[in-house]
Design goal:
Radius of gyration: 17 Å
Number of strands: 0
Low-confidence stretches: 1-8
Shape: elongated
Helix content: over 70%
Strand content: under 5%
Largest sheet: none
Number of helices: 4
């Protein structure tokens, strides 16, 4: 996790602040997405086993991002900043999409819950991969 001692320089403080916000937003978005999915599934009467499988499917990108955030400590700062920005953007974008497709409509749009995690994982891979390639001093 984030060290308790304050960083020495201003960029370090900004990166630590971004990290904390990104992790908090990612955790909230994962719980929110699972909650919206369960509410939508209850509205259409989905079987419990299917709902559990879909909950695991929907939270998988958030777990992936959490693992990447923890393992990214050895990465260059630019790549970590891209990852943390993706975590924030993904949290907001998926929350809006799940509300729009899962709660607002009379009948939830199931493909949103099927394709959403795939698209989110692809966005993470592309953005972090491009940040790593664009970083001239990458390890």
């Amino acid at each position: 996790m984030v060290p308790d001692t304050p960083p020495d320089s201003e960029p370090d403080r900004a990166a630590t602040s971004l990290y904390r916000r990104a992790v908090a937003a990612n955790r909230f978005a994962g719980v929110f997405a699972a909650g919206v999915l369960m509410m939508a599934a209850r509205r259409i009467g989905s079987p419990t086993g299917l709902v559990l499988v879909f909950v695991l499917w929907v939270i998988a990108p958030y777990v992936l991002l959490e693992i990447l955030a923890v393992t990214s400590r050895g990465w260059k700062q630019q790549t970590r900043v891209f990852l943390h920005a993706e975590m924030l953007f993904g949290a907001v974008a998926t929350a809006v999409a799940y509300v729009a497709f899962g709660l607002i409509r009379a009948r939830p749009v199931v493909p949103a819950f099927v394709l959403g995690p795939v698209l989110q994982s692809l966005c993470v891979g592309v953005s972090v991969g491009l940040a790593a390639l664009a970083d001239p001093g990458r390890r």
